[in-house]
Write a structure and sequence with these properties.
Blueprint lengths: L1 H11 L4 H8 L8 H18 L2 H11 L5 H14 L4 H16 L4 H21 L3 H14 L5 H5 L5
Length: about 160
């Protein structure tokens, strides 16, 4: 009875999802999508600042959402397109290569992430005029390093 009363109190608290995660040990698949997207964006930003691939890999594992790794691919590509310069492109290619080689990101997830970017490129280009050129550069680098397939490279929208 005491445990049920305690659970009822905790469920009434409308603070943060993390509170229930800490109490009940909720896995990643039961977290809200917005929360997961936010965590992935933070992971990617931290990676761009630190350059620590193993740290980014560990953080992705700790999210416990292997079915949602296509979102990381999507967010990584969009982050590169909305940024500027050569360094973020090279860094994201390195991260995607490691995640691909370790099996954290599967072929299907890689394809889904890139396809979503291809579909939304028009909208992305409104905010980032250089997005098309950066995408072509990123896609070529990913293909050269064996991260994406020829079919996915050829599906990239051309100017």
């Amino acid at each position: 009875r005491a445990a049920l009363d305690r659970a009822a109190v905790l469920l009434r608290i409308k603070r943060d999802v993390n509170r229930l995660d800490n109490v009940w040990g909720v896995g990643g698949g039961q977290r809200p999508v917005k929360h997961l997207v936010k965590e992935m964006n933070l992971l990617l930003r931290e990676y761009l600042l630190s350059g620590e691939v193993t740290e980014a890999e560990q953080c992705l594992r700790e999210l416990e959402v292997p079915h949602f790794h296509h979102e990381l691919v999507y967010e990584a590509v969009v982050m590169v397109l909305e940024g500027s310069g050569e360094e973020p492109v090279a860094m994201m290619v390195t991260l995607l290569k490691v995640l691909w080689e370790t099996g954290l990101v599967t072929l299907d997830q890689m394809n889904r992430g890139f396809q979503r970017v291809y579909e939304e490129l028009g909208d992305i280009s409104l905010d980032a005029p250089l997005a098309q050129g950066l995408l072509e550069q990123l896609v070529e680098l990913c293909f050269d390093r064996g991260i994406i397939t020829r079919a996915l490279r050829d599906a990239c929208p051309a100017r």
